[in-house]
Design goal:
This protein has 16 helices and 16 strands. The chain is an alpha/beta fold. The longest helix has 18 residues. The protein binds zinc ion.
């Protein structure tokens, strides 16, 4: 007896299922996309109930609705594991300054950078923040992202950090993209604490973290570990306090200088260490030992016009489960587009298109604690599926800077991109 299902997607010429071991992918596994040619996917209650050769899937199910993929390439929805999409104002004037030769640290010292976003965010209402973030989420979804992590960190007061986290929670409830909230109260040292950093660290540890924990407003605690903000000792102190309160840990590590952020991530058993442009060989070994996922953000190096990119190949060779993210933020990476991140990962990090797709789906899902629910097209997982106007995974980063997603399904519901409006290949 065929099983009743809500939906079947048929006529998929090539389906990258990313099925495999129930853990992040390392080494040669990064290239194994578990391709099914001539595939179909059946969905019930937003979850995948069958995936495989079209003939065998359609024999097993009786669908209420059929989507003809028109011979398109299908892959899991992207998981974007590092974003700052809640902010109050764009910063294109700083982009202009940077293009004229000013450095990130110089712009920050001149009152720009994160301080600029902090000033604007403190003035903004919840409603304004929410309505500004909505179109960013729409753009993410229309480019194929179905789950994303979002950080606080532009408030830097108890009140404003809570405000940001409440906005993130509301956005997650209202928007189809699933959001994973991260507390980043240690994103910067607020201006008013510049000469009394320890007082701010005490505020973080004694007031902010306990309040965020008791209200369950964030799953992760993150920190900007860098010479001009939080050194290793500060970071260890804050992250240890967070871990004791039940937060999972992330670090912005070794972006500007190799200062031991990756080593600390390994020592504390952080879920991920992010950026890692300058990571040392010791840092790489420490991450491998501590089971840390390196989340690489090549769009940031690109947007900064930097020469240096994270040493992805060294990390892959060391057995690390590399993941990719946009780092979408108004200062250093103004993009919601994971397809574009794949292009930069291929050309600058020398990752293959298959490795980049794995890094942006299943490994990215593990980087935010969602590897059991999303990131691959497997039975029991969310029906988060992208149909691309592309013949295969190589075409997406190759034909760069444009959106190839023809249809994005989140929990089995088609969203965002007008499916019928695209030409068949
Ligand atoms: Zn960041």
């Amino acid at each position: 007896m065929p099983e009743p299902v809500d939906l079947i997607i048929t006529n998929i010429s090539r389906c990258a299922t990313l099925r495999g071991a129930k853990r992040p992918r390392t080494g040669a596994e990064l290239e194994r996309l578990s391709i099914v040619k001539g595939a179909a996917i059946a969905v019930r209650h937003g979850r995948i109930v069958a995936v495989g050769k079209a003939r065998s899937v359609s024999r097993k199910v009786r669908p209420k609705q059929i989507i003809d993929a028109g011979g398109r390439f299908a892959a899991p929805g992207f998981v974007d594991p590092h974003t700052h999409i809640v902010f109050a104002a764009s910063r294109e004037h700083e982009f202009d300054m940077r293009v004229r030769g000013k450095s990130y640290v110089e712009i920050t010292r001149a009152g720009g950078g994160i301080h600029n976003s902090v000033r604007m965010l403190r003035k903004a209402t919840r409603r304004a923040l929410q309505s500004q973030a909505m179109p960013r989420l729409d753009r993410m979804l229309s480019h194929g992202t179905t789950t994303a992590e979002v950080k606080s960190g532009y408030g830097l007061t108890l009140r404003d950090e809570i405000k940001m986290l409440e906005v993130i929670r509301n956005l997650g409830r209202r928007h189809p993209v699933d959001l994973v909230p991260t507390f980043l109260g240690a994103h910067e040292i607020p201006r008013e604490y510049r000469r009394k950093k320890n007082r701010y660290i005490e505020l973080l540890i004694n007031e902010m973290l306990p309040r965020v924990a008791s209200r369950r407003l964030a799953e992760f605690c993150d920190i900007f570990t860098e010479a001009h903000v939080y050194n290793i000792k500060d970071s260890r102190r804050i992250l240890t306090a967070a871990r004791d309160l039940g937060f999972k840990l992330k670090l912005h590590a070794d972006e500007i200088k190799a200062m031991g952020g990756a080593e600390l991530a390994g020592e504390l058993g952080a879920v991920s260490a992010d950026h890692l442009v300058m990571v040392s060989p010791r840092g790489i070994r420490a991450m491998a030992k501590g089971g840390v996922i390196p989340v690489l953000l090549p769009a940031t190096s690109f947007a900064l016009g930097a020469k240096a990119y994270a040493p992805a190949r060294k990390m892959i060779e060391a057995g690390l489960p590399v993941a990719l993210a946009t780092d979408c933020n108004p200062g250093t990476s103004m993009t919601e587009n994971m397809q574009f991140v794949l292009s930069i990962a291929c050309t600058q990090l020398r990752m293959t298109p298959a490795e980049a797709l794995t890094a942006a789906t299943i490994n990215a899902a593990y980087a935010i604690g969602r590897g059991d629910r999303v990131g691959s097209l497997d039975i029991g997982k969310a029906a988060d599926i992208v149909l691309y106007d592309a013949p295969d995974e190589r075409y997406i980063p190759y034909h760069m800077g444009v959106n190839h997603a023809a249809c994005v399904l989140k929990n089995g519901k088609a969203h965002g991109v007008p499916y019928a409006g695209h030409t068949l290949l």
